[in-house]
């Protein structure tokens, strides 16, 4: 198709997913990719809203690139028909490749801007947040992420299951690839801006939906900024997320872990001082647990049944640990989020993570005692140490959310 025609489609790049250091023609500052699959009902509205916002902020200095994977509902044709009305709009129709992440990268490969971005085409990512993301980049960030997990962030009416799956995926990432997933509070975000030079000349190799993991894992990202946003409910069409995306996510994490030297970086960034304080608090919890267990279950005191006493003692110890961690180990973070609602939310997360840690503790104890070391106390010590690292690391990233974001 002759690319000089007014609404001709963009050429579709092939080969490795590498972004050139400088654009073929640097005619604009900002290139925003809108990946689409069956968004016919949303595409005109998102283009109209983005144009209105960006014409106000950076008139003539941006481009919108719709990258559509040959949607059966004709999204790419509708987008193409809008090019006349929206001169900043370009459209790429992919027929040989499919997938959200690769669509974004193909769009970045043909982009003209030195600042690259991605936003969903279904209006679930509120366009107005773009302005704060642009401000963060102007202030020096290499990567500006719209996050559901910082102040001002949230998900509209997600089911408990979807929240649990999303958080579970994040915890899995914190375990498999801590130095990447732990750098931001919402590593699953599909809404962010990144400087071209931070991700240029590296072969990106994403699989599935989580393009941000690839950018964090393979890019040269120094300064990160986060902006809170509320993930909106879809009005038209439906999410394309299936179990396949969850499996691809795990595959992506493992591949990133194996192919990048992020193992070393984890130990460099590990906050040893905080971990020591967390360990001392945990020790105080052991004394509280033992004391309450004695008061409740010893024949010379109340003589209650052991399991019931242990559950009460364990919960009181968790409460004790939370108070000390909130007031000492993570005081600097806690004081930034010190409303009662935030404190209760933190306590709830801490509780869930510590109870999961208790399950891990029991599993490791049985594993070590039955297959490795036939001494229950040594096995228990190993189990407590592993559960403490789990409790510390996951609480650091989810409850008190110490990310590398400035
Ligand atoms: N080109 C292309 N190819 N676009 C796709 C594909 C694909 O295979 N699959 C989905 N898209 C487009 C959709 O049209 C939509 O614009 C956007 O990518 C997100 O797809 P959804 O299916 O709506 O994903 P979601 O809403 O469940 O999750 C989104 O938001 C999360 C939070 O930011 C995704 O962006 C997730 O990656 C993200 O974690
Ligand atoms: Mn969506």
Q: How would you explain this protein's 3D organization?
A:
With 406 residues, this protein is an alpha/beta fold. It is built from 15 helices and nine strands. Strands 3-2-1-4-7-5-8 form a seven-stranded mixed β-sheet. A two-stranded parallel ribbon has the order 6-9. It is 52% helix and 10% strand. Bound molecules: guanosine-5'-diphosphate-alpha-D-mannose (GDD) and manganese (II) ion. Manganese (II) ion binds at residues 120, 122, 124, 234, 239. Residues 31-192 form the Glycosyltransferase 2-like domain. Keywords: Glycosyltransferase, Magnesium, Manganese, Membrane, Metal-binding, Transferase, Transmembrane, Transmembrane helix. The chain crosses the membrane at residues 275-296, 347-371, 377-396. Residues 277-399 form the GtrA/DPMS transmembrane domain.
Q: Keywords for this structure?
A:
binds guanosine-5'-diphosphate-alpha-D-mannose, single chain, Spore Coat Polysaccharide Biosynthesis Protein SpsA, Chain A, elongated, binds manganese (II) ion, alpha/beta, 2 domains, two-stranded parallel ribbon, 406 residues, 52% helix
Count of beta strands:
9
Q: What sequence of helices (H) and strands (E) makes up the elements?
A: EHEHEHEHEEHHEHHEEHHHHHHH
- C-alpha-based Rg, rounded: 25 Å
Number of helices: 15
Classify the helix fraction into a percent range. Answer: 40-55%
Spatial order of the strands forming the largest sheet: 3-2-1-4-7-5-8
Global outline: elongated
Q: What would the average pLDDT be, to the nearest integer?
A: 90
CATH topology of the largest domain: Spore Coat Polysaccharide Biosynthesis Protein SpsA, Chain A
Largest sheet: 7 strands, mixed
How many domains? The number is 2
CATH H-tier superfamily of the largest domain = Spore Coat Polysaccharide Biosynthesis Protein SpsA, Chain A
Bound molecules: guanosine-5'-diphosphate-alpha-D-mannose, manganese (II) ion
CATH structural architecture of the largest domain: Alpha-Beta Complex
Structural class: alpha/beta
Unreliably modeled segments: none
Distance between the termini: 46 Å
Name of the CATH first level of the largest domain: Alpha Beta
Strand content: 5-15%
